[in-house]
């Protein structure tokens, strides 16, 4: 089916049709670039394709299976209402502090004043115990420490120590003196005991018998009061039971709902007194499957209908809180598809309905196969740093294998969860049979093999792109268009199974890698993140607008999201301006996230975006994606061009790139004569095509000069870099082995390395007279015909001359019909100059300077230590003698 758009005719495909075409293209190894371009941009043979998952919409004859469960429990209480032993944490783990939005608010009064509707995750708290399993957590919540200017709900070290020493430990001692005898005497004492030699903590736990549990809350408050800690007043407890849906699944009848709810509290040892006295919220879940080998997903255009039914609210409120411009509503794309998506909704007071719902989320269970909480991520994720460090291939292939394996074994279900008070938990999401048709109409059903293959093929495309990019040289890879495509990889691949990150830095990236549309003409349903337009402004709600930043990054346990952790605004980039003068925003016009036009194949060495007019993302964004700034990225790409992988267990060596040398006024511009040998420096080889513009960053300092001028500058840089990397002694307080001042190091020349008075350069060294063969071997390491950098090299990769030499070798090798002869002519010139030096460092394969003591082969300038201490090794020319 074809549809017309502003860009011309677009061919509409179902997900199955898209995957079939992708498979056919992938099977042609000679056209892998065509496959990559198709699955990532939707363009094939000049035709734009659209993916329409609604072609898989379920119909009235389709059957579904529904099961109900209780996934988690949250509760507040003055006392600890547990009828079991509990495991106490004398010193809590920081990661157990509640810092994510649970959509519950508390009102209280403390010494700072009256506080109404404070989000619970803003109130200082700490985990003091667990019970019944690793997922059941008991936190002490301390309203007395809250004030509006407090930056975090995490407590500082002084507050932790005060709580332990003046509240927690005295309370346990008052209840069970025998048990308290084994508790650490102070907070710092436990930290000292727990810290291992490598800095890791092994915090201990203590068991408290159930007969003392009920009294622990009062005992803590009394102890804090008696020890003059005013913020202990008002201390309450937060119970959290999560991830228990698998253990209490039941039918959707009202009777099953009541029985299962009672059983849930009994299994988790919560007393009847606690149920009656505490404030409890339950996450009630409904999971829908097809009963066959299919994957289900929620239709985006039916969020309104599902939410209206579940919350039992009127049409106006349902429309308001499912509007893509509403601050109450966060849409989570499923497999990059815009027509099928999950969502997260905070209804607010006006739309909470008779069930008093405070939170609702819809998602698909296929995300569980990559569930792996780590930092701000809930699922497996790739970073730009891993790409630069050549670690992405294993991750991408592992993810590809996971998806292909899942295609035969894992069917995806559609799930909805709603958080309601305890008294409404048994009355929501029941009797689904009466509205089964509503759920059927709100779902699509795709064969599992097709659903997983959609993701697998998009990963497969990036495997080839990243592999091909890794084969290019550093100057080609750091070109804006190529580096932007590299930067797109982690955002794109992580978004296949997680909500695409839309933090400030990711928005900066999306503005550069996705198609753009005039803001005023934007359809909010096609936007990756909500933006205001003149026609449809964002609907900011008055009830919870102040907490939107939290809602954008939190998520339930099963609804996996990649949340950006960079909370600052990205430095503004020049906006891309449309013909009408209005700014443009990124959008998804073809049903699935497609990147803007890519160039690869047909003479293109490094895959890249086509449009060279698009500016680079900000330095802040590069740092966020790659963990490095522009200069560091360029250095890594250079090293990767020549890298040889070394044993990963070797100790890392920190280095800093040497400065580019500034020529002295009176020095000659040429000291070589390679031109007389027929060496001509022609322009660098470039990718075919007119889409790559000249970029000064692609050329090093010597690019546009003749061969002899370039070699002269390169030689002087070589001499300066050797001195710049002269070794220091091990202790930071001790002087360098080199006695030259920083200014003298910058101005070294050939004469420096012809001066055999070694004490004028070193305060200590090891030296030996080299053979001609050793001198020649040293030259081959300094000026190799095939430059490479060991992965943990201490010097080479950070020396400006070595990088420039690598660029020159690449240029000479690729530009000449007889590259070996041309390169050898250049090396002959350098070798002749090198042979005129009288001493050089004893260069090794992985370092310029080697300091290990070798009294068997080297003499020592200073003999006071018996010749056993480390000192730089120096080679003296075969026909010279040092003057000591």
How is this structure best described in words?
- The chain has 884 residues and is of the alpha+beta class.
- Among the domains are: 2-53, no CATH class; 70-249 and 269-275, no CATH class; 669-679 and 703-876, no CATH class.
- Helices cover 31% and strands 18% of the residues.
- It has 25 helices and 31 strands.
- The strands form nine sheets. The protein has an eleven-stranded antiparallel sheet with strand order 11-6-9-10-12-5-13-20-17-16-15.
- Strand 15 and strand 16 (337-345) form a beta hairpin.
- Helix 9 (303-311) crosses helix 10, helix 17 (504-513) packs across helix 19 (619-626) and helix 24 packs antiparallel against helix 25.
- The longest helix has 23 residues, at 448-470.
Write the layout of secondary structure elements.
Elements: E1 2-5, E2 8-13, H1 15-26, H2 32-41, E3 43-44, E4 47-51, E5 65-77, E6 86-88, E7 105-110, E8 113-119, E9 125-130, E10 136-141, H3 157-175, H4 177-180, H5 187-194, E11 206-208, H6 210-226, E12 236-241, H7 254-267, H8 272-277, E13 279-289, E14 294-298, H9 303-311, H10 315-321, E15 329-334, E16 337-345, E17 359-364, E18 371-374, E19 377-379, H11 384-388, H12 392-409, E20 414-421, H13 436-441, E21 443-447, H14 448-470, H15 474-477, H16 480-494, H17 504-513, E22 516-518, H18 548-551, E23 584-586, E24 598-601, E25 604-609, H19 619-626, H20 630-642, E26 643-644, H21 707-724, H22 742-746, E27 766-769, H23 772-782, E28 789-790, H24 800-815, H25 819-834, E29 839-841, E30 859-860, E31 873-876
Parallel strand pairs: 2-4, 26-28, 27-31
Antiparallel strand pairs: 1-2, 3-4, 5-12, 5-13, 6-9, 6-11, 7-8, 9-10, 10-12, 13-20, 14-21, 15-16, 16-17, 17-20, 18-19, 22-23, 24-25, 27-30, 29-31
């Amino acid at each position: 089916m074809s549809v017309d758009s502003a860009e011309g005719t677009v061919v509409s495909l179902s997900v199955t049709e898209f995957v079939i075409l992708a498979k056919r293209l992938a099977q042609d190894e000679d056209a892998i670039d065509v496959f990559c371009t198709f699955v990532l941009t939707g363009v094939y043979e000049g035709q734009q394709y659209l993916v329409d998952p609604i072609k898989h919409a379920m119909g009235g004859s389709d059957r579904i299976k529904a099961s109900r469960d209780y996934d988690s429990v949250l509760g507040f209480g003055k006392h600890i209402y547990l009828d079991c032993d509990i495991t106490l944490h004398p010193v809590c783990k920081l990661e157990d502090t509640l810092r994510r939005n649970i959509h519950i608010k508390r009102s209280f009064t403390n010494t700072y004043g009256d506080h109404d509707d404070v989000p619970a995750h803003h109130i200082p708290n700490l985990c003091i115990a667990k019970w019944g399993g690793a997922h059941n957590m008991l936190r002490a919540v301390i309203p007395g420490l809250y004030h509006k200017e407090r930056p975090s709900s995490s407590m500082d070290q002084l507050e932790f120590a005060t709580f332990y020493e003046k509240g927690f430990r005295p309370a346990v001692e008052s209840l069970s003196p025998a048990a308290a005898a084994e508790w650490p005497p102070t907070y710092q004492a436990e930290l000292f005991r727990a810290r291992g030699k490598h800095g890791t903590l092994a915090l201990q736990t203590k068991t408290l018998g159930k007969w003392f549990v009920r009294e622990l809350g009062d005992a803590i408050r009394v102890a804090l009061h008696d020890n003059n800690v005013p913020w202990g007043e008002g201390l309450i407890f937060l119970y959290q039971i999560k991830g228990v849906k698998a253990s209490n699944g039941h039918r959707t009848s009202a009777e099953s709902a009541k029985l299962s709810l009672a059983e849930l509290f009994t299994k988790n040892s919560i007393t009847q007194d606690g149920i009656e006295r505490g404030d409890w919220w339950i996450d009630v879940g409904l999971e829908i499957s097809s009963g066959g080998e299919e994957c289900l997903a929620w239709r985006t255009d039916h969020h309104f209908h599902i939410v209206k039914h579940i919350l039992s609210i009127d049409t106006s409120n349902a429309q308001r809180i499912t509007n893509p411009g509403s601050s109450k509503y966060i849409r989570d794309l499923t497999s990059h598809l815009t027509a099928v998506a999950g969502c997260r909704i905070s209804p607010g007071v006006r739309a909470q309905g008779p069930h008093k719902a405070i939170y609702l989320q819809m998602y698909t269970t296929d995300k569980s196969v990559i569930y792996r909480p780590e930092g701000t991520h809930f699922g497996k994720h790739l970073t730009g740093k891993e790409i630069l460090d050549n670690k992405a291939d294993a991750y991408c292939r592992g993810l590809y294998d996971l998806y292909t394996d899942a295609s035969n074994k894992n069917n995806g279900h559609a799930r909805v969860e709603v958080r309601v008070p305890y008294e409404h938990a048994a009355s929501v999401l029941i009797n689904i049979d009466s509205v089964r048709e509503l759920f059927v109409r709100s779902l699509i059903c795709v064969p599992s093999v097709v659903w997983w293959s959609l993701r697998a093929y998009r990963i497969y495309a990036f495997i080839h792109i990243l592999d091909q990019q890794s084969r290019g040289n550093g100057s080609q890879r750091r070109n804006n268009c190529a580096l932007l495509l590299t930067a797109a990889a982690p955002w794109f691949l992580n978004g296949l199974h997680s909500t695409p990150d839309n933090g400030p830095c990711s928005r900066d990236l999306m503005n550069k890698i996705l198609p753009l549309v005039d803001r005023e003409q934007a359809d909010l349903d096609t936007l990756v993140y909500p933006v205001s337009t003149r026609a449809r402004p964002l609907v900011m709600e008055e009830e919870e607008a102040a907490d939107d930043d939290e809602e954008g990054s939190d998520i339930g346990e099963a609804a996996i999201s990649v949340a950006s952790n960079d909370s600052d605004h990205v430095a503004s980039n020049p906006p891309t301006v449309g013909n009408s003068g209005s700014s443009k925003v990124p959008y998804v016009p073809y049903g699935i996230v497609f990147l803007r036009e890519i160039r690869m194949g047909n003479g293109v060495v490094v895959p890249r975006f086509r449009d060279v007019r698009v500016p680079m993302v900000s330095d802040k964004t590069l740092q966020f994606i790659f963990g490095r700034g522009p200069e560091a990225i360029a250095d890594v790409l250079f090293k990767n061009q020549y890298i040889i992988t070394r044993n990963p267990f070797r100790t890392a060596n920190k280095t800093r790139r040497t400065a580019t040398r500034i020529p002295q006024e009176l020095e000659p511009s040429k000291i070589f004569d390679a031109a007389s040998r027929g060496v001509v420096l022609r322009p660098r080889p470039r990718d075919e095509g007119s889409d790559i513009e000249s970029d000064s960053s692609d050329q090093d300092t010597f690019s546009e000069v003749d061969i002899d001028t370039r070699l002269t500058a390169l030689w002087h840089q070589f001499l300066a870099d050797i001195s710049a990397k002269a070794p220091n002694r091990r202790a930071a307080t001790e002087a360098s082995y080199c006695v030259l001042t920083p200014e003298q190091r910058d101005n070294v020349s050939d004469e420096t390395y012809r001066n055999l008075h070694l004490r004028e350069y070193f305060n200590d060294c090891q030296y030996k007279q080299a053979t001609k063969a050793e001198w020649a071997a040293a030259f081959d390491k300094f000026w190799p015909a095939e430059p490479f950098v060991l992965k943990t090299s201490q010097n080479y990769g950070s020396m400006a001359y070595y990088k420039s030499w690598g660029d020159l070798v690449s240029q000479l090798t690729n530009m000449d019909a007889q590259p070996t002869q041309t390169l050898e002519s250049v090396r002959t010139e350098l070798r002749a100059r090198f042979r005129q030096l009288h001493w050089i460092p004893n260069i090794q394969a992985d370092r310029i300077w080697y300091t290990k003591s070798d009294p068997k082969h080297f003499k020592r300038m200073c003999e006071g230590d018996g010749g056993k201490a480390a000192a730089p090794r120096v080679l003296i020319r075969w026909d010279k003698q040092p003057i000591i």
